[in-house]
Amino acid sequence: xxVGEEFEREKTEHEAGQSGYKDYLMLRILxxxxxxxxxxxxxxxxxxxxxxxxxxxxxxxQGKFIQRDLPNIWKQTFFQPQGxxxxxxLLRVGSHPKDTFMNMKAFAPRGGSTLSVRCGAAVPAxxxxxxxxxxxxPGRRAPETVPASPQRAPEPARVPASPQRAPEPARVPASPxxxxxAERRREQRGTxxxxxxxxPKTLLITRPPQAFSPPVLFLxxxxxxxxxxxxxxxxxxxxxxxxxxxxxxxxxxxxxNEVGSGTAPVAQDPGWTRVERRDPPExxxxxxxxxxxxxxxxxxxxxxxxxxKHRDNVVCENDQLKLDQRSFNWSHLTPLKLKDRSxxxxxxxxxxxxxxxxxxxxxxxxxxxxxxxxxxxxxYWRDRLLKLRACGFNTxxxxxxxxxxxxxxxxxxxxxxxxxEAFVLLAAEVGLWVILRPGPxxxxxxxxxxLPSRLLQDPASQLRTTNHSFVEAINKYFDxxxxxxxxxxxxxxxxxxxVQVENEYGSFYKDKAYMPYLHQxxxxxxxxxxxxxxxxxxAVARGHIKxxxxxxxxxxxxxxxxxHLYKVQSNKPILIMEYWVGWFDTWGxxxxxxxxxxxxxxxxxxxxxxxxxxxxxxxxxxxxGFMNGATHIDRHRGVVTSYDYDALLTEAGDYTxxxxxxxxxxxxxxxxxxxxxxxxxPKTVYPSVDPSLYLSxxxxxxYLNRPVISNIPLNMENLPINNGNGQSYGLVLYETTICSxxxxxxxxxxxxxxxxxxxxxxxxxxxxxxxxxxKITECQLLRILxxNQGRISFSWKIQxxxxxxxxxxxxxxxxxxxxxxxxxxxxxxxxxRLRSVxxxxxxxHSLGPAFYLGTLKAGSSPQDTFLTLPxxxxxxxxxxxxxxxxxxxIGPQETLYLPGAWLQPGxxxxxxxxxxxxxxxxxxxxxxRW
Length: 930
Prior knowledge:
- One of its GO terms (molecular function) is beta-galactosidase activity.
- Belongs to the glycosyl hydrolase 35 family.
- By secondary structure, the chain is an alpha+beta fold.
- Among the domains are: 346 residues, TIM Barrel (Alpha-Beta Barrel); 106 residues, Jelly Rolls, CATH 2.60.120.260; 90 residues, Sandwich (Jelly Rolls).
- The protein has an 8-stranded parallel beta barrel, surrounded by 4 helices. The chain has a 7-stranded antiparallel β-sheet with strand order 11-9-8-7-13-6-16, with no helix packed on it. Strands 45-32-46-51-48-49 form a 6-stranded antiparallel β-sheet.
- Helix 10 runs parallel beside helix 11.
- The N terminus is likely disordered.
């Protein structure tokens, strides 16, 4: 009787009417003896009754079995298989460039713990086939080859020499026992060239048990499935080029001994010659030849190894990826051409291949690129979408920011740059499908992850949970938003083929009812297209919802990413919802960039494996105004104004090396020629601006809205302004009177300047909450100017992102009272009032917070440009009342993008709010600087 090993089991529903048992388990027993494998398959029932029905498969591991044509459904393997499996690769013996190759099929009875390798064709030997099994990550250089252990080697067997080539001389390193015998015979003959008959037919190789990587066979050099120029001896092939066929999928080509059944037809493999078996002497080292009993279920293994199969329509030719044109002819699958619609984007499964997407019944890969309409001037939407289409993409993805679309409770804004419907319909006109990501939380490096800051007014309200007040706010927002989205869906004639539920919830999971609630909220309001979730790879198990497609966000494509996804979802096509081609920047850190070749290589791999993907970002745009978010790793760091993201298009929409490399790749795999590239957006340099007029902050207070009088300092969100919605962005000025000096303590978020009257005394910031006030002889006005530099967008701390002064302000441990609070939201209405103000000439030494006024002369045809502010320290720039965003001399961003569409012919008003010290001029340039 075979010896059993533990295994994982999966219950399934028994067919109705077949028996009285509700559940059954499938038992598979793999028995090996004397070179033959037999697999017993039967049903086990809960009451331990005898097997009622069984099948017996015979797996003859001699030349007779090897000559049979195993199914052409080999799977691309990234992980150690968890059950018996066959391996296929191309093997080159010899170091000469003209040496021939042979197929090598291998069987791993324990999923890779041991590996029996049988060579099925004669080899013109130049080196002994010294093999080594080692884990190797993609891109890593292989170690030097090491002979296999002598204890693991069988006796040598003779293989007929190949008639095509004569053997070439080569020295034979230390090797298994069979090779040693061949070496002795060669020494007696006086030559070091091994005969083909010296080569062993069977080698036993043991993988280090602690490694968790797929088997990698090294024979200098070992090649994968795609022919390529000969490699150096120190090179190897990563696991991604080994092909895997589970034993269970080879059963149809085996002899089926079930009672009443016939023999399955088999096809001959002309590439294999029959090799008669000559068993080596019994050895205790060949422990795998004992009787095995392996219990396994074929569907359980998918939780450990991704079932990504080699695409039949992929070939390698001169290192250039090409695919079967029939599979990538999507010219008829565009929003304007696809008129008769019924099923939309679906997930499909078919025996013998990976799950895949279909669009109206046609196989479809999503080539997506992210463009956020709210970060791009509306006049440039068409330009950016046309460039996306011309690169070869077929889908655009975008977030929908709640905080911008509902700035106050019940007041919605879908106009101008926030016209979501216009953006979606324009995408359809260009020929792009749309995947919508409506949140309510979106992250996107936005302030509070796109949630309205008024949600922080109630300390009892728990964000991203089924808390009553939070859910009530979501329902009111969704009632308005989803009503606009429903007519844009695919089955309604629109371009929206999928909708995402929330965003990356698995990273900060805290309410198991929250995601299912949002799922139902979308369904109830009429969303009928494919629903999906998106999570970082290590959080997908916590963020996915039953019945909703799980997708992942990754920076680097590796085995761990797919491993996590397949643990929760093995029967659905893979969609990488965010493939990060760059990264965002934060103030005081370096500018983030990624190599273009690395991006092209990963995208090539996605396509080769049949993986759909979305490039994040294709075009990042700009965090105009105060929309930027922040991070808090070592300390609070705001996201910079530019959302360039090192994307395929720059912040200003210009082409990059990444763009052209991906376009070059897509040209080879799409039948229809790509559209012509739109002309680059012209840039220019304008005359320098001399801001010769100024208005101090203290003089400008009278033009602000009426201040709030409070006995205690109120945080920004709880100020009784904006119809009870508080203040979301900008700055807050707190004033009170003190009559003595001492230790001042205040929790200011995020950064505060402290003044006595108009004289600055220091900074309060994250980790710096105390300032010593000098002794004063009379009462003076204490002023604390606090700025919101961006609420954290991705953290457990999202619940505690109130801004302004938090809690009491004390002087010598005595709480201060009677505050006058000014709100500086710096909206356009404020700058309209400033136009009637009498500005003063700039003094020789201008210090402290102030507004500076100048004129930018744009000529008759305004074009895009970038502002540089050498000598300026920290502040904001407004052009014709529009907030271009924040500048800061600590970098990494050194320029501010100024869209030509926001300029008018002739003179343009430019106002700079500088918090510290002004510079002499404002210059322009036609290139961004970092």
